[in-house]
Amino acid sequence: MDCLVCHEQSGKYKKFPTACGHPAYEEKNFGGKVFEPVDLNAVAKTVGKPGLQNCGVCHFFGGGGGGVKHGDLDSSLLSADRDLDVHMSKEGANHTCTACHTTINHQMAGRYYTEKAPLEHSMAMPEDYGNRISCESCHGSTPHETMTILDDHTAKVSCQACHIPRYARGGISTLMWWDWSTAGKFTEDCKPIVEKNENGRPTYHTMKGDMTWAENVVPTYAWYNGGMEYVTIKDTLPKDGSVEINRPLGSYDDPESRIFPFKYYEGRQIYDAGANRLVYSKLFGPKGSGAYWSDYDWQRSVEIGMAESGEEFSGQIGFIDTAMYWPITHMVAPKEDSLQCAACHARDGRLASLPGFYLPGRDRVSWIDTVGWSLFVLSIIGVMIHGLLRVVFRMARSKKQ
Amino acid sequence: MKRTIYMYKGFERIWHWLQAALIILLLLTGFEIHGSYELFGYQGAYVVHIQAAWILLGLLVLALFWHITTGEWRQYKPTLKNLDKMVRCYMVGIFLDEPRPYTKTPETKLNSLQKLSYLGVLLFILPILIISGLACYFYNDLQAWGLSVGFGSLAILHTIGAFLMLIFLVVHVYMTTTGHSPLAYTIAMITGREEVPEDNRVC
Asked: Angle B42-70/B126-137 helices, nearest 10 degrees?
């Protein structure tokens, strides 16, 4: 990180993709794009407080393109209307990132990693929770004006769960599925293949494999206490051929957990099939270096990647299905667009598979319902028969007379 | 020969019909919240359910006060007297046009079987519904007071109470047709005046 990338306001300070954080100091070419040398003097004269663009220039493009990693952070936020994001929109609160991500001596306040959700649902001030931010920091824990039952929900439901009904809403699709196992195909005359969808997003790329993109995505919900469990290269993977690389920690019974929305980002990637572990593979380098994007040989790219990072490798590669949970916390919708009760309080609602608790509208004890409705129907049949008998006996009596 | 008796006082009638409307509304919205069907929409059902519940609770407090201060609570004093005869009346006598084993008067409106079933509602079904309902509504506060009871258990108890109330309602509505004419009891509960046949026979 340098000073300029966060503070310059000219928009002309661009880093060169392979220069390890440096901009182009002379005219350079990358992937068919020309990078002009940056006039550092002119750029330095524009420094100011960081705006959306300063943060977004990195965080909107993580993973090599817009919306590849985050589902709730992309460049559509630069010109967001209120429907997309009430905080960052000009017609909304017109906040920059630093309105929430406050700093003390350049230490940014974040939200994730190992911190817990605020236990007391009061203002989450730095002295209580460290430099962590939450919606409650500004809104408090009882922000709903009309229905107190909504304030009761804050004990178990995060603000984000209802107030971000979908993510990737700004017109930029986000990557949902990345299949590395199909990478490395070429045309008959040995040219790389790039197939794109109607939005110009690659659905196949020789370097990367198959990809699936989506907009307006319904989040995946999980119990979350602010902590994540990660599978690292040291961990042996489960034997069923798939692994969640990270997993939100928490449960209904944990008072620090809430229901939280996530982008469930799936893929298939190379791994050490002999030792049943994740691997480092060498992707980028000149031809002959063993880099996958030059030589297209997974075996060599993993051997070199593991050797260079000092990890053991069994020599046997394979592909494994992986998934990641990316927390959804930006793109907060206007209150009138937040989720309605029945989105979750329904038999097949958004929380249909969230375990550990009784949710009215979703759950029931089926035998009690069966017995209850049966007795209801039987009681109706019973009184009808009783009434019919009264009529029949009376008719018989009047005939006799 | 028939004569007309002033059976139900004004408060009793208003209390009865208001309570009936509230209980039907609570059943309708409650089973929607339970997920049995869609009628008001979940939010509508919830809002109506809570408001109806508070009004019913207020009404029950008023009714309790009325019954205590007027001495009308004695109407519900349970008795086993004639219980066997009442069972026989509804199982056999009602079909054979036998005289009833009791006489309904403003002082003793309820027969022994009625007393038992209304006491069942008052002392069993209503407490189940009210206690589990309040506990669900104030669940967060319950937790804060350190009372650990599962929300699911409360909701299930509330559902059981609702089914019992529903079945009571079916039988109760049917029983209103057993006066000397099918609508005699209903009209009495509306106007307060009930036509009683001298020979005390059922319809």
From this structure: 130
